[in-house]
Write a structure and sequence with these properties.
The chain is mainly α. Helices cover 73% and strands 0% of the residues. Helix 4 runs antiparallel to helix 5 and helix 4 packs parallel to helix 7. The chain starts with 7 loop residues before the first helix and ends in a 20-residue tail after the last helix. The relative contact order is 0.11.
């Protein structure tokens, strides 16, 4: 994400990423964040962010905004690339964002995984702001590959099948690296993974297109709808 600590605020932000990644939101302490930011002023977080809660929210906002922006820019039909090229651009960008960020990238990934396991009070707002529109854009892209009149459940299952290949590595890496101790690590491996996911996914989507056109698919017992409003959770 290209984060650099050039000001006190930046140093606190990066220190917050480090501490939240290590201890989680509940276990993070303001004193430790200030210590890692080389700040002796315990009120610095209140001054720059409005408190620990707002600092954590700002970090989550950066994560979700970055993901949403990449998805919108690369997946849009306005960039004059084929649907296949746009899907692969998304996959490559997603892999790079998750795995090519060095130490800070690994820490942001840890925060993301923690947030998925123990959602904060900010998650619904972030999903409404960044993820709902992104989800619709991805489904539109998958629809270009399978068929514009494909049912929504097929588009959703297909989109999840593409990106879950990447999320598997991010969410199970602690176990995976112990099962495969000779693995080179995701920072070195992410480009290979991206190309594999592209080829595997495009082949799978072609098969789903053929099955849909041949009326060979069995519909599930639910009818997902387009998400237009906020959830009341």
């Amino acid at each position: 994400m290209g984060l650099e600590a050039t000001t006190t605020r930046d140093k606190l932000f990066l220190a917050g990423i480090s501490v939240f990644a290590q201890y989680g939101y509940a276990g993070a302490r303001v004193r430790e964040i200030c210590k890692r930011a080389d700040s002796s002023n315990m009120n610095a977080i209140n001054y720059y962010f409005g408190g620990k809660e707002k600092l954590y929210q700002a970090i989550l906002e950066l994560m979700f905004a970055e993901l949403g922006n990449r998805m919108r820019l690369l997946g849009s039909s306005e960039n004059n690339k084929t649907p296949e090229e746009r899907l692969c651009d998304l996959v490559r960008s997603y892999c790079a964002m998750l795995f090519a960020g060095g130490e800070v990238g690994s820490e942001i990934l840890a925060i993301f995984n923690n947030e998925m396991a123990q959602p904060s009070e900010f998650l619904n707002e972030l999903i409404d702001k960044h993820m709902v529109g992104q989800n619709e854009a991805i489904l539109d892209l998958v629809g270009e590959l399978i068929g514009k009149d494909a049912p929504r459940w097929l588009l959703q299952d297909s989109a999840v099948s593409v990106f879950s290949q990447i999320i598997y590595y991010s969410s199970t890496w602690v176990v995976y690296r112990r099962v495969h101790p000779d693995h080179p690590g995701m920072e070195a491996y992410h480009q290979h993974l991206a190309e594999h996911v592209c080829r595997f996914s495009l082949a799978g989507l072609r098969e789903m297109k053929h099955a849909f056109e041949a009326n060979a698919l069995i519909a599930p017992n639910w009818n997902p709808r387009r998400t237009l409003c906020k959830r009341n959770e």
